[in-house]
Amino acid sequence: MNRNELLLAGLLAAVIAGGAVLLPPVAEAQAESGVPVEYVDTTAGLNSPTGSGWAEIQTATIPLSSAGAAVPAANDVTVEEMQVQAVRTNRQIRVRTSWTDPTQDGSEPSVREFDDNVAVQLPAGGEEQPPIAMGSSNNPVNIWYWSGSGSSEELLAGGPGSTTPFEESTLRTEHTYADGRWHVVFTRPLDPRGDSRTAIPRDAADLDIAFAVWNGSNMEVSGQKAASQWHRLAVSSGPPAYQRFLWVIAGVMIVLTTLLTLEGIRRTGGE
Amino acid sequence: MSSHSSSTEAVDLAEGVNHQVAMVMDLNKCIGCQTCTIACKTNWTDSGGREYMYWNNVETKPGAGYPKDWEELGGGWDDDGEERTPGELPDQDDYGAPWDFNHEQIMYEGSDEPLRPMDDAADWAPNYDEDEGAGEYPNSYYFYLPRICNHCTHPSCVEACPRSALYKREEDGIVLVDQDRCRGYRYCVEGCPYKKVYYNAMKKKSEKCIFCYPRIEGEGPEGEVRGPACAEDCPPQLRMVGYLDDENGPIHKLVNEYEVAVRLHPEFRTEPNVYYIPPFAPPKHTDAGESTDEERIPRDYLEELFGPKVHNALDTINQERERVRRGGESELMELLNSDRSEKYRLEVFDES
């Protein structure tokens, strides 16, 4: 192999390796609507709701409208959309929700003051998609519920009016309010112990997920909420960095094998 | 509605309720001393986010009451008793809040001002309009109205809760809030037309009068069956406590036989189980101080409060009074003057 051929081989290998690194995420993003759950090695930069790492994570915009529940003023809701991002490590899932609300409601304790709230809903584990309004008795849902007063609850529900907190919550939340916008990050182990808790698989998989937001200033509470339909929570498979490394090795090997074969043919043909 | 035994055919009880506790308050005996209020408060609402609550309160009528203008806030049922009427949540200030005083100025800033509430601090409080009443001298009038949860037969608070956190106890119809079920939505607060369910912002739960059920179950002082603290501690002993369906008790007689104990705002259609003997007052005076035949408390005002049945109740009491004045006997007058043992009949159904 002369110097030019070596250079060509190197260039080919670099293009393939680069393509392997750059292309797969783009292809995944095009294939998957809903809420992608990106795999991350570390939560560095993602620990606070305004951490710099969130800028690198894809954002899904979720439309919201009245849940139409059988409570007074059910249709009087104000929040029309929210943004959702999600990542997972090998141990936990982290969902960041954010939405615009000009008033921060959560610390005024009185009869007519209501908290801003946000909730994430997942099937508790059934095969079929549960009814969107809090599931049903034979197809319950998990709800991760954060209140503007700073508290959070991990809940189980089997239909409207049945919401019940788990005795011990495995949920953690962080929140900030700035420039008329709430950012709330939910963190939960992928597969916490205990029955009736949604397990987030470690392999690539789709789950159902839904969201709801309450605006305290508008006295939104209970079924008077801006809620989403079911969306697809697209969980990424194992560590993409590991996959990409394998693709790079494979690419380089293919290029080298091709070049060596060509060289062999050239030498054979030349004799 | 259904009746549950041959002996209680005349009494409507809520579905699924075996007996119904009830209270009759004789408004002619209330002196507005607030001992009932304090008895309740020291038992149940002295701390923990309940500071503003008076499960038992005594307000002056005519007057804005507690919370302020509660009668204007909606709730209850429509005329057919089928659909709930929308209600509003009271403003926190309308329950009354502690006033800010000028302590800072006097104690630390050398002010010579007398101790007094800060500007605008003292514009409302429970009983702010106490004893004001209505009418012109010499014919002004007022009376006191003690109020607790009515433990209604058709409670709109129970119906309002999307979580079924409020319920009527099967054994005695006491309306309770299951604190484990309650998530602080406050539909019950706005749904009760008497505004007798309160929101505890510290606990994020709704709370209310429990008819002192531990006392009537014998868990009270000295392990004895006792009436609710508001009733037992009342100096003029104006409250009778028992079961509406206890045909031999004074409550059944006053409510169902003589029909002299009437409901407050029956038009809300929640069917309260607290009943009132309506108030009498001396007749109107002329400017010269002569008594006239005209009633001091206008009948139409009493009808506004107690519904049209108040006329019959007042007339019956008048007739029975006249009978006694003429030297006759009256079981009704005896009942209204009954001794303490007759006032609390709480163990009549213990065997059943």
UniProtKB/TrEMBL annotation, chain A:
Q: Name one GO cellular component term.
A: periplasmic space
A single Gene Ontology MF term assigned here is: heme binding
| KW Membrane (keyword) present | yes
UniProt-listed InterPro entries: Cyt-c552/DMSO_Rdtase_haem-bd, DMSO_Rdtase_II_haem_b-bd_su
**Keywords assigned:** Electron transport, Heme, Iron, Membrane, Metal-binding, Transmembrane, Transmembrane helix, Transport
UniProt keyword Ribosomal protein present: no
Give start and end of each Cytochrome c-552/DMSO reductase-like haem-binding domain. Answer: 51-226
Membrane-crossing residues? 245-265
The name on file for this protein is DMSO reductase
From TrEMBL, chain B:
N-terminal signal peptide: none
- Cellular component per GO, a single term: membrane
| GO MF, one example | metal ion binding
GO terms (BP aspect): anaerobic respiration
Keyword Secreted set for record: no
> Residues annotated as region Disordered?
65-96
The record's listing under Gene3D superfamilies reads: 3.30.70.20
Q: Give the location in the cell.
A: Cell envelope
Q: Which InterPro entries is this protein grouped with?
A: 4Fe4S_Fe-S-bd, DMSO_Rdtase_II_Fe-S_su
Q: Which UniProt keywords apply?
A: 4Fe-4S, Electron transport, Iron, Iron-sulfur, Metal-binding, Repeat, Transport
Q: According to its UniProt record, which cofactors does this protein need?
A: [3Fe-4S] cluster; [4Fe-4S] cluster
- Annotated ranges, domain 4Fe-4S ferredoxin-type: 21-50, 140-171, 173-202
Report the principal subcellular site: other
Q: Which NCBIfam families match?
A: DMSO_red_II_bet
> What is this protein called in UniProt?
Respiratory nitrate reductase subunit beta
UniProt source species: Halonotius roseus
